[in-house]
Amino acid sequence: VFQILVTFCIREEDTGLYDVQVNSNPSSDLRLRVFDSAERRWRHLCSSEANQLLANISCEEMGFVSVVNYSVSSIPEGSNDREEFFCVKEKELTYGKKIKESLYPCDCETGQVLSLLCQDCGRRSLTEDRIVGGVDARQGSWPWQVSLQYDGVHQCGGSIISDPLNISLHLSLSLSLSLSLSLSLSLSHTHTVSLLSHLLSLSISSLAYTHFFSWILVLLGSIYNKLTHKNVRVLEVKTVVYHSSYLPFVDPNIDDNSRDIAVLALAQPLHFTDYIQPVCLPHYGQRLIDGQIGTVTGWGNVGYYGTLADVLQEANVPIINDAVCNAPDYYDNQITTSMFCAGFEKGGTDACQGDSGGPFVAEDSLSKASRYRLLGVVSWGTGCAMAKKPGVYTRVSRFLPWISSAMRTYHNSPGVHKMARTWEH
């Protein structure tokens, strides 16, 4: 586990830095600091009974998902920092809300300040050049990419977002499956319907859930969708949490794919390596930028009528303005606020069947060090790589509170769970 420091500074528009900054050097000053915009100076965070909650939210705010540890330290006698403090209004501190909204200048009577370390993310340990343009990825290029498999065959993608103590996978609910299972879980209709929706539509016992999970395996650590690399791990699923307002679960004939999101927990511990790493989530309030280039990866069909790729594919595509994507010749107002489009007007490069649930990531230096963030999850689209029919993705930034709540609520609850919206932004 990489250990990093979270501190706070003023947003510098000319550098593109977010007001939460990190330092990857564990020997540096670990004290949490917040920039006082009114006084134009730094303040340390005074230690309080809310230290653990404050540490957790601080890490989440910058997209780091979880805190490694936190501690308190005393301000040295005679220090110039004696009047540079923020205290927290403990009752106002809550997940999904920027911590600066819950702070006020104070004298910090305890003389102790908060330090913290977050779980690192979005970093690629292997530095090989990557191949772009819808072709093979290189081993270790996208260490958060996973393959969800049934009977040894790839079905859809997912992304590692956290350590083994939390929900570890993030994937779309629209799994394009063309298989028949026992328990009468066959896909007979023409809509793209989740395997989970069939499972949940049946009144089956928790024992059946156990059998179901034993059939579904998660492959991690490889660009190949089969167990052919020494660094590959294959693990079972323990928990599934899906959004209860995903309407195709209510009626498979509904075409609205809003809130197409779920999180999974693994049954076995997950140890990070050069080939297995978590991706960062967006920071609180992060907005998509029209035209920004992101990378979509997956083992989906190479062409609409093609076969699954043997090697992980990657392609760079630009984010499309919502108004453009909702135009009559594009998707005619089917794109909701929980989605976004990415692709080219002429088509040619796109996600396809089998890519569902996989990541759309973009690199930034909002925390000085370059990191990749999970901006989108492959959800749906008309055909594959067609003109004016780009891929449609779940907008992850809209579901940060939902993801956080799902992880905290169900991390110790095996089975399949549905959870309603919680402070979606």
From TrEMBL:
Pfam families: Hepsin-SRCR (PF09272), Trypsin (PF00089). Keywords: Blood coagulation, Disulfide bond, Endoplasmic reticulum, Glycoprotein, Golgi apparatus, Hemostasis, Hydrolase, Protease, Secreted, Serine protease. The lineage of its organism: Eukaryota, Metazoa, Chordata, Craniata, Vertebrata. Residues 131-408 form the Peptidase S1 domain. It catalyses: Degradation of blood coagulation factors Va and VIIIa. Signal peptide: none annotated. Its EC number is 3.4.21.69. CDD domains: Tryp_SPc. One of its GO terms (molecular function) is serine-type endopeptidase activity. InterPro entries: Hepsin-SRCR_dom (IPR015352), Peptidase_S1_PA (IPR009003), Peptidase_S1_PA_chymotrypsin (IPR043504), Peptidase_S1A (IPR001314), SRCR (IPR001190), SRCR-like_dom_sf (IPR036772), Trypsin_dom (IPR001254), TRYPSIN_SER (IPR033116). SMART domains: Tryp_SPc. One of its GO terms (biological process) is proteolysis. Protein C is a vitamin K-dependent serine protease that regulates blood coagulation by inactivating factors Va and VIIIa in the presence of calcium ions and phospholipids. Exerts a protective effect on the endothelial cell barrier function. Residues 10-119 form the SRCR domain. This is Vitamin K-dependent protein C. The keyword Protease applies. It is found in: Endoplasmic reticulum; Golgi apparatus; Secreted. One of its GO terms (cellular component) is endoplasmic reticulum. It comes from the Eukaryota.
